[in-house]
């Protein structure tokens, strides 16, 4: 009896609970317990390091994806740096803290898409405008959606002969600085691809263009034993699924799901509904993590689904269900203000990224 009670206590001591639920889950059974946020600016590094130590580590977060983009003092292309960017010494502080707490650090640079935002052109196309897939689309003085050009974010042309020399030099430098073994290339919400007026890729199959870019990035990383992570929305059929143009593709890139390499990680984000598309990706032979943002109820359902997928899967499918990653779409400084209740209170005090994070990752 004493032995049985001891075993029960050990089991109870190693469980986490769903909010408002009696369902207990074995702790740390998900290979990836992740957090994704924009890298802090250099001036905001200290409070972010404190957040890693005091909030991420106690919640057993083991993966931190930092959206770096041009927020690093690149030496290969100093012309692409953001003002106030992280120095190499500051990045080493991040590396040290994450290593101390067994957190895998993964840098992200948006490749292919997201080369502009609203009315702002990002640094790559600002400095190298000839890389632009749609140079005839001019940035508006006042951005509105929808618009006549279908402009959401600009893309670089994946067939431009000079683009990969530049972006791969950035990738190599940031990977070395972060001492990383995986790289997140973004590649979400690519609306401009294979445009008819593009002299290089006009008229080409958009799925093949997308898959070709994934392969090119993957192969470059593989030369140094590094792996590729991407968002999964462009690999889902927005029309057939009803997921639409944001969380899935309406411009025929979805067929690339059968063309991309099988050793990449798919970050499957769904923010409005807890869609069960991880099953689709796993059935295609791809590793997948599910990614919530700001709705705690949806995130808890997605977490339960991931555990259920793993518990009911065949031995072949189970390793493909890799876990969950909380995403944050404000900058690090604003998120910390929200998380600690120091910023301006949001209109919706329930559906916030901080509440979502607390719901799925208990401290």
UniProtKB/TrEMBL annotation:
It catalyses: Hydrolysis of terminal non-reducing N-acetyl-D-hexosamine residues in N-acetyl-beta-D-hexosaminides. GO terms for biological process: carbohydrate metabolic process; glycosaminoglycan metabolic process. One of its GO terms (cellular component) is membrane. Pfam families: Glyco_hydro_20. Residues 1-24 form the signal peptide. GO terms for molecular function: beta-N-acetylhexosaminidase activity. It comes from the Bacteria. This is beta-N-acetylhexosaminidase. It comes from Chitinophaga eiseniae.
């Amino acid at each position: 009896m004493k032995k049985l009670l001891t075993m029960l206590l050990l089991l109870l001591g190693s469980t986490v609970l769903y909010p408002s639920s009696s369902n207990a889950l074995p702790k740390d059974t998900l290979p990836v317990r992740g957090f994704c946020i924009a890298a802090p600016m250099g001036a905001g590094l200290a409070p972010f390091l404190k957040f890693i130590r005091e909030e991420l580590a106690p919640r057993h977060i083991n993966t931190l994806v930092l959206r770096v983009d041009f927020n690093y003092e690149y030496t290969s292309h100093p012309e692409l740096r953001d003002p106030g960017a992280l120095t190499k010494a500051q990045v080493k502080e991040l590396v040290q803290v994450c290593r101390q707490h067994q957190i895998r650090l993964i840098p992200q640079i948006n490749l292919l898409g997201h080369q502009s935002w609203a009315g702002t052109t990002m640094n790559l196309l600002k400095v190298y405008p000839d890389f632009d897939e749609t140079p005839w689309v001019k940035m508006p003085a006042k951005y509105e959606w929808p618009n006549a050009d279908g402009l959401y974010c600009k893309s670089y042309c994946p067939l431009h002969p000079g683009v990969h020399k530049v972006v791969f030099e950035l990738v190599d430098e940031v990977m070395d600085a972060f001492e990383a073994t995986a790289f997140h290339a973004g590649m979400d919400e690519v609306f401009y691809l294979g445009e008819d007026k593009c002299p290089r890729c006009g008229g080409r199959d958009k799925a093949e263009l997308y898959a070709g870019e994934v392969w090119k990035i993957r192969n470059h990383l593989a030369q140094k034993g590094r792996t590729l992570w991407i968002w999964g929305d462009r690999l889902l059929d927005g029309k057939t699924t009803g997921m639409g143009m944001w969380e899935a593709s309406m411009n025929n890139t979805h067929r690339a799901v059968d063309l991309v390499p099988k050793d990449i990680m798919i970050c499957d984000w769904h923010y409005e509904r807890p869609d069960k598309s991880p099953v689709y990706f796993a059935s295609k032979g791809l590793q997948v993590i599910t990614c919530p943002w700001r709705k705690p109820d949806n995130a808890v359902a997605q977490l339960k689904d991931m555990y259920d997928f793993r518990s009911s899967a065949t031995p072949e499918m189970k390793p493909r269900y890799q876990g969950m990653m909380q995403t944050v779409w404000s900058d690090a400084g604003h998120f910390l203000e929200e998380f600690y209740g120091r910023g301006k209170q949001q209109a919706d005090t329930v559906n916030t990224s901080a509440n979502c994070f607390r719901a799925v990752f208990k401290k």
